Amino acid sequence: MNKTQLLFHNMENTFKSFLVKLFFKKSTFISPSKIDLAKIKKILIVRQHDPMGDVLISTAIIPNLEKAFPAAEMDVIARPALSEKDIFLKSPFINEVIVFSKKEFFFPWKMGSFIRYIREKKYDLAIVAGSSSVSFTSLFLAYMSGTEIRVGYSGEYFGKKLYTDTFLTTPVPYDSSIIKHQVIRNLDILTHINVPITSKCHYMSISEEEKKVATERMNNKGIVKPGHTVIGMHLGANELPNRWPLERFAETGDFLTKNPKVKVIVFYGPKEKELADKFRKIVKSDVVIQDYLPLREFASMLSLLDVFICNDTGVLHVAAAVGTKTVAIFGPTDPTQWNPLGAEHIWLRKDDKSVLSVGTDEVLSKVKELLGK
User: Fold this and answer.
1) Would you place residue 164 in the very low, low, confident or very high pLDDT band (cuts 50, 70, 90)?
2) CA distances for 25 relative to 17, 19, 22, 45, angstroms
3) pLDDT at res. 5
4) What is the mean pLDDT of residues 349-370?
5) Residue whose C-alpha is closest to residue 43's, from 30, 62, 60, 28
6) Which among 75, 92, 242, 272 could disulfide-bond with 268, CB atoms 3.0 to 4.6 Å apart, if both were Cys?
7) Beta partners for 42?
8) What proportion of the chain, given as a percentage, has pLDDT over 70?
9) How many CB atoms lie within 10 A of CB 259?
10) How high is the pLDDT of residue 253?
11) Average pLDDT over the chain, rounded to whole?
12) What SS3 string covers the chain?
């Protein structure tokens, strides 16, 4: 965050704090011991904030809620930005994905209509999911839903205690002194209200029809399974320090495709066409470069891969969510907190925390490890 962004952020936070003090009063605290889980029939999950990868990680709470409340209806509030609403579509656990854009704040009649809609649902429990930030919008929507029990992380550590004291009835303490995986931090919200944890995997449901379309797309590119081992690579990352050099992705693709039974598909993001064009000029082998796809089509293709190689960015969590093995190259970010959980998800990171220090041979070694060859 640069100085201008920080200044704007602080001004925005000050303005929101003024509005909260002026129009709202502190919520009545409800202890976890006072929550009767047997009475929970309708659940609202508010996940209207954070980047795509963070949102995907938080989906780990959903199967656990389904297990604890098999007869309950679950709805999710998600934003349209970055296709985050699409993460929750076709989930067998979700009754409705309710889309909310911050633009609605500027249209009082739309805002009023939205609030009436979610209040009419009469939820018994609202959970503001998330592990690395506190969102005014998500908290506000949980409060305005009229739900009696509203649970989420306390904002004290994030400098937003006013928001959480006002909008939540059951704030969850955030202990920053303990290093935890971000999936576990999300699940700790459930643990706090005595919901048992039976699964630690985040997920994204892909339908058989979506897989069929993805298979046809691969076949059209000359990739036939089970005839080929298919390895995917994603070139980009939102942050430059997280981006492994294109030359090493090219070297990786060139080596893998020496085996005629191995096919490599290269993906890139919506703002990364220039990156893909540069890659085309340096790769020597006959790899398949897939044009940008919308999230669900992209996820469907990932679900058919044997291994996915990528940087530390949101697509890593898409691959893990659809059950694909991953090799991730990490830079500044701590992989013990952010790499997907499970032995099928391998990360590489050097002591200097630079992606430039990770060699091609090291990545290839981990790919071979996952393939069992």
Assistant:
1) very high
2) 12, 11, 8, 23
3) 65
4) 98
5) 62
6) 272
7) 73
8) 98
9) 11
10) 98
11) 94
12) CCHHHHHHHHHHHHHHHHHHHHHCCCCCCCCHHHCCHHHCCEEEEEECCCCHHHHHHHCCHHHHHHHHCCCCEEEEEECCHHHCHHHHCCCCCCCEEEECCHHHHHCHHHHHHHHHHHHHCCCCEEEECCCCCCCHHHHHHHHHCCCCEEEEECCCCCCCHHHHHHHCCEEECCCCCCCCCHHHHHHHHHHHCCCCCCCCCCCCCCCHHHHHHHHHHHHHCCCCCCCCEEEEEECCCCCHHHCCCHHHHHHHHHHHCCCCCEEEEEECCCCCHHHHHHHHHHCCCCCEECCCCCHHHHHHHHCCCCEEEEECCHHHHHHHHCCCEEEEECCCCCHHHHCCCCCCEEEECCCCCCHHHCCHHHHHHHHHHHHCC
Domains, the chain, ordered by start: 21-192 (3.40.50.2000), 208-371 (3.40.50.2000)
| Higher-confidence position of 84 and 205 | 205
Peptide bond into 92 cis (omega under 30): no
pLDDT of residue 19: 82
Nearest by Cα to 318 from 279, 345, 336, 347: 345
257 pLDDT above the threshold of 70:
yes
Residue the block writes with tokens 């929550």: 35
- Evaluate if residue 7 carries a pLDDT over 90: no
User: Distance between CA atoms of 341 and 183, rounded to whole angstroms?
Assistant: 8
The answer to whether 321 and 59 are in contact (CB under 8 A) is: yes
Could you give the CA distance from residue 343 to residue 197 in angstroms, rounded to a whole number?
20
122: left (phi over 0), alpha (psi -120 to 50) or beta: left
Residue listed under structure tokens 């954070």: 50
Instruction: In whole angstroms, give the CA distance from residue 102 to residue 296.
Output: 23
Residue 373 pLDDT > 60: no
Structure tokens at 121: 């649902």
Q: Residue holding tokens 């999230």? A: 295
